[in-house]
Amino acid sequence: MAEPLLKVDHISQRFGGLLAVDSASFDVGAGSITALIGPNGAGKTTLFAIISGFQRPVEGRVRFDGQDITGRAPHELARLGLARTFQIVQPFAGLTVRENIAVGAYLRHRERARALDAAEDIAQRLALGKYVDQSAGALTVGARKRLELARALATSPRLLLLDEVMAGLNPSEVRDLLPAIQELRTQGTTILLIEHVMQAVMNLSDQVYVLAEGKIIASGTPESVVENEQVIEAYLGEGAAAHYGKGGRPP
Amino acid sequence: MKSTIAACAVLASIPLFGASNVTLNFLVVALVVALVGQGWNILGGYGGQYSFGHAAFFGSGAYVTAVLQVKYGLNAWFAIAVGIAAGALVGAIIGFLAFRSGLRGSYFALVTLAFAEVLRIVASVTPITGAGVGTLIKLDMRPEAFQFQSRAVFYWIILFLVFVSLLIAGRLEQTRFGAWLVAIRENEDSARALGVDVFAIKLRAMILSSAMTAAAGCFYAQYFLFVDSSIAFGSWISVEALLAPIVGGSGTVFGPLAGALIVRLLGEAAKLVAGDAPGIDLAIYGAVLVGVIAFAPRGIVGLMAALSARLRANIVSAADGSGKHG
Prior knowledge:
Mean pLDDT of chain B: 91
Radius of gyration of chain A: 18 Å
Number of strands of chain A: 10
Number of strands of chain B: 2
Oligomer: heterodimer
Strand content of chain B: under 5%
Number of helices of chain B: 14
CATH topology of chain A: Rossmann fold
Mean pLDDT of chain A: 90
Order of helices and strands of chain B: HHHHHEHHHHEHHHHH
Radius of gyration of chain B: 21 Å
Distance between the termini of chain B: 42 Å
Strand order of the largest sheet of chain A: 6-7-8-3-9-10
Largest sheet of chain B: 2 strands, antiparallel
Structural class of chain A: alpha/beta
CATH class of chain A: Alpha Beta
Strand order of the largest sheet of chain B: 1-2
CATH topology of the largest domain in chain B: ABC transporter involved in vitamin B12 uptake, BtuC
Structural class of chain B: mainly alpha
Strand content of chain A: 15-25%
Low-confidence stretches of chain B: none
């Protein structure tokens, strides 16, 4: 393997006096599921916005499949095969589920009939089949999250950025979604996810990066990362690791 | 497609039943508004970009048509073609500037309004447009000069233009361009993330919209043979451009046509009742707009669809009920 599919190289982002991302670097290998975790406000979503072209970083480069994509427009990146979901779902509320997914499918299928067929297929795969003719605005939170995923998937991405697709789902919905995401990887889509639901992170990811206050503070397998003292302190506060004992559980 | 042909065939037969000149005149103006409204509908109804300044395109078409004939002696048909192109060009320029700077919502509305006002003021002072006096197209009752003895011919021509605009809107709903345009209306960021080149799609919609509206302006100039700045670039046409589709049902194929007929009919009825009290039609328009937004946010077309769905459900349940009770 020459170069990873996605290479984030010393990215920094500043909003006025706030350094939201501070020289963050990480790689996402082709065919992997990589998780980006960290406390609230660590800069995860900002990093996603930069990778997907919605923001331009003040410093650093992003490379995708060997090309420099820093600052390229989101629609060009989608064409190259880089799709994202939004943490706060943004359905096209006035359209049906099928039409929602078809907007993504049109990127690869110019013909309306073929785009609608592709949309229908993806809806079936993500258990949205019975909702295809419903208005997206009328869906439950769980179904909206799946719709968000379905639309991104319809663009046939090689790299899929998932921003908290599990948030707001109940445990049984999380259980249902996990195999769907595994399945995507099996079919060859590389996945980078931001997630707070640790069950999902532990279950899915090959590699975890921990972002705190804009910096990558740890990386490794999910098991090694949750034992890491710096990570425990980033989440629970300074001294927490010593207090609870390394790798121990809170009393 | 079928309903477009059927609706236009019905409208086309009206002069055959000996409609009076007053009726035809009313219908011609209503169809001009329908065409302007369809132009607005492409950009505002399908694309969600609300323009308050469609007068800019209407007026560009009207003035170019008039001035090319009067000052440069060009053929009317040719002048009309150039007028449509000029309207599209004005649309492209305004669209490029507004969309490139990312103006949306009320900011976009205000910028379009400002452009239309600037054009109105410029047209009211520059010599080439006839300044405050306006431009009078010479009477020349020949088809080669796009002037016809019979109002019915004018009526059929504007009806044909409306027919084409209906086909374009209908086609829009079947294409990727249309689907992406609607996606932009619903959520711009989502559309962008799904690979939609938001700027390019908006600009194309703007050019299509302004060309359609300019065509109405060209026709208007030829029909009345007179243009001045408050007719061509006045806010009345910007208001009617958005009123017709919103009342009729914005983002639908037939919304602008239905809305134009209703709004114009109400305007005329108000004049009959209230005499020529100034502004009475505007007051009526305001009341209608408030009513539509409050009770039928998807316009007349949306209301009809909802009613027919309910009626069908009632018939089905009535049939079920009678079955049960014997």
